[in-house]
Amino acid sequence: MAAAEIKIGQVDDVQELHRTGQGTVPDRYIRDGDDRPGGDNVCALAHIPVIDVGELPRGDELNKLRLACEEWGFFQVVNHGIEGELLDEMEKLTREFFMLPLEEKEKYPMAPGGIQGYGHAFVFSEDQKLDWCNMLALGVEPAFIRQPKLWPTTPARFKDTLERYSVEVRSLCQRLLAHIAETLGLAPATFRDMFGEAVQAVRMNFYPPCPAPELVLGLSAHSDGSAVTVLQQDMSCAGLQVFRGGAWVPVHPIRHALVINIGDSLEVLTNGRYKSVEHRAVTNGERDRLSVVTFYAPAYDVELGPLPEFVSDEAPCRYRRFNHGEYSRHYVTSRLEGKKTLEFAKIDQTKAAPEEPCSCL
């Protein structure tokens, strides 16, 4: 296949680059030195916390959850109630989709600057460094965010399996948010009642082997705009990394465990007590890697700001009040650049007038 035929918009399809045996990485994927994944700032011995959901809200496990949210912003969950068979089927069918011929996958194209369909998201300029990753992203709930024409009909069971999977993950998000509320001294239903008809979207990421994994990133460092994110990663290799204490910590896969992280929305609501955390994906020279990521966030018409319980003289209001739909539009039209998108909501403490009241909920 000629190079001109392996484009999605203006972006190379990295699976096709791998399939055609290209031994070098195009310049657009090669990172500058400080942004490369190698170096001394990877802490391979550390492990993010593991929470047994079946033990919640027992005191010991609830305290572990609180510490995980405070100190990491990331944790893995086991005994979470989603059957292993369903997780396996979702992974299998997602992989089958990415293994389809390019012309079949291109029936569900992600529009330039779009966030649903097959292709590359968060690409906004010709000189932008690209991620070594193909994506299939779909809106799930509420119904009005769905674009049915972008839901693959091949593999045959993909749609039905994703529907069942998404119902289970939505329930898990609601349970986890209830327990997270408890760790904050709030009523378990606090976030459920506040979020309205919560927005749920799924993004499937496929990272083919890369001939120069030390020069590229599978996914640029970023925080999530969600309240919580649920990630299912395959067992092939550790590709997800979390930034903590000035170092990148690999998230080692645990069979049938799910990785949970705090998103920007919860950071705002807790006035920074629980923080969203930068994370990224790295590639491998020999193995491909697959992840299925669900984002769970407040309804677009919900107004967010720090809850009064978390604002005091010792903890001044750090974020302005804003409409969540407004923030979502800002997030999806911005590059993935660490936590830069959250600057949208931050109050500049050096300029804030002391007599100006915080617009908390």
From TrEMBL:
GO molecular function (one): metal ion binding
Gene3D superfamilies in UniProt: B-lactam Antibiotic, Isopenicillin N Synthase, Chain (2.60.120.330)
InterPro entries (UniProt xref): DIOX_N, IPNS-like_FE2OG_OXY, IPNS-like_sf, Oxoglu/Fe-dep_dioxygenase_dom, Plant_2OG-oxidoreductases
Regions that span the bilayer: none
Domain Fe2OG dioxygenase: 198-298
Keywords, alphabetical: Iron, Metal-binding, Oxidoreductase
A Pfam family this chain is assigned to: 2OG-FeII_Oxy
Source superkingdom: Eukaryota
Coiled-coil annotated spans: none
Signal sequence region: none
Family statement: Belongs to the iron/ascorbate-dependent oxidoreductase family.
Cross-referenced PANTHER family: OXOGLUTARATE/IRON-DEPENDENT DIOXYGENASE
Protein name (database record): Fe2OG dioxygenase domain-containing protein
